[in-house]
Design a protein that fits this description.
mainly alpha, 67% helix, single chain, 106 residues
Length: 106
C-alpha cells in the first residue's frame, strides 16, 4: 500500500499541481468528517467546536443540524475550528507541499 510520501514521490515528476491541490482538499474534508463522526453526541460536538475556537452560537447551530457527516465537514464551523494549521498539528502531511519539495527533480 502506498503511503502519502511514496505517492507524492511516484507522481512528483508529473506537472499536476492542481491534482495535488484537489487531493489535499478532499483529504482535509474527509478528516474533518471523521472527526465529526467521532464526536457522536451533540454535547460533545458543541464542546469540541467551542474548544477549537468556534463561537457558542455557531456551535449550537451546527450540532443541531440534521445534515450528514460529509456535508457538516464543509460547514463554516468546521472550517473555523478545524483549520488547515490545526490539521497539520494533528499530523496531516500536505501532498502539495511534498510535490513542491520534489520540484528540483523535474
Amino acid at each position: 500500500m502506498l503511503t502519502d510520501r511514496s505517492f507524492a514521490a511516484y507522481f512528483g515528476l508529473a506537472a499536476q499541481l492542481k491534482l495535488f491541490d484537489k487531493l489535499d482538499q478532499w483529504i482535509r474534508r474527509r478528516i474533518r468528517m471523521c472527526y465529526w463522526k467521532r464526536w457522536c453526541y451533540p454535547r460533545t460536538r458543541s464542546r469540541e467546536l467551542i474548544r477549537l475556537g468556534v463561537s457558542r452560537r455557531q456551535s449550537i447551530r451546527h450540532w443541531k443540524s440534521r445534515q450528514g457527516h460529509w456535508h457538516m465537514a464543509k460547514t463554516i464551523a468546521s472550517g473555523i475550528g478545524m483549520t488547515n494549521a490545526w490539521l497539520q498539528e494533528q499530523g496531516l502531511v500536505s501532498l502539495k507541499s511534498l510535490w513542491a519539495a520534489l520540484a528540483p527533480l523535474r
